[in-house]
Amino acid sequence: MSVVGNAANVINPYSHVPVYRQLADILRQQIQSGEFGHLDVLPSEKALVQTYGVGRDTVRSAIALLRDEGLVFTVPHRGTYIGPRPE
Amino acid sequence: MSVVGNAANVINPYSHVPVYRQLADILRQQIQSGEFGHLDVLPSEKALVQTYGVGRDTVRSAIALLRDEGLVFTVPHRGTYIGPRPE
DNA sequence: CTGTATTTGTTCGTATGTATT
DNA sequence: AAATACATACGAACAAATACA
Fold first, then answer.
1. How many Cα atoms sit within 13 Å of B77 on the Cβ side?
2. What is the pLDDT, as a whole number, of residue B39?
3. Which residues have CB atoms below 7 Å from chain D, the nucleic strand?
4. How far is the CA of B30 from the C1' of C11 (A)?
5. Reduced to 3 DSSP states, what percent helix, strand and coil does chain B have, rounded to the nearest 5?
6. β-bridge mates for residue B82, sequence order
7. What is the pLDDT along chain B (87 residues), one digit of tens a residue?
8. DSSP letter (8 states) at residue A15
9. Per residue in A11-48, pLDDT tens?
10. How far apart are CA B22 and CA B45, in angstroms?
11. Which nucleotide lies at the shortest CA–C1' distance from B76?
């Protein structure tokens, strides 16, 4: 398959699906496909802003969604990690 | 004219011009007027925060602007120097 | 060699303002 | 009115490199 035109990893600002949900979908897919290892760090907010060309609010909304789903947990000033929050 | 009340060196938080751009304007003016010598060190981020009463983000954004303009270059853990980046 | 201080780098937390849908 | 989105702004915490006494 061609790499170009693969919409799976690309934000579509014209979609009816909010950008933050599209971003959450992309990250969720990457996490579940094992693209990141368990306890690996998710790219930082800044990195995601740059990679996907969206605002910080949007990145934070997407991460909050994944956090609510139990897919990641965030440690203040450290980063967001893959996996359920340890007890 | 009096030095006091010269708005050229003062941040106006109520301006439509973002604070980081105002700060960049002030520093750019000082650099171009020869207030600092070539290869002198710009005041540290901490010093600029204190001098102008702004946040560190703002200082870093202003410096990044000057860096993009080629007016200064930053050496990690050393400081930001006046002049184009040496090769 | 060993601390201590300084400085930039990086990260998330929070808030406000504005614009668009 | 409410949700979404982006830019700006300040804060806090810690890391890492450097310099120096």
1. 0
2. 75
3. A 13, 18-21, 49, 53-58, 61, 77; B 13, 18-21, 49, 53-58, 61, 76-78
4. 32
5. 45, 10, 45
6. B72
7. 544 444 578 999 999 999 999 999 999 999 999 988 877 789 999 999 999 999 999 999 999 999 999 999 999 999 999 999 887
8. S
9. 998 999 999 999 999 999 999 999 887 777 899 999 99
10. 16
11. C8
A45 touches strand C (CB under 7 A): yes
Which domains does chain B carry? 19-82 (1.10.10.10)
Q: Name the amino acid, one letter, at B55.
A: G
Contact yes or no for A45/A60 (Cβ under 8 A): yes
Task: Tell me the residue type at B85.
Answer: R
Cα separation, A52 vs A34, in Å, equals 20
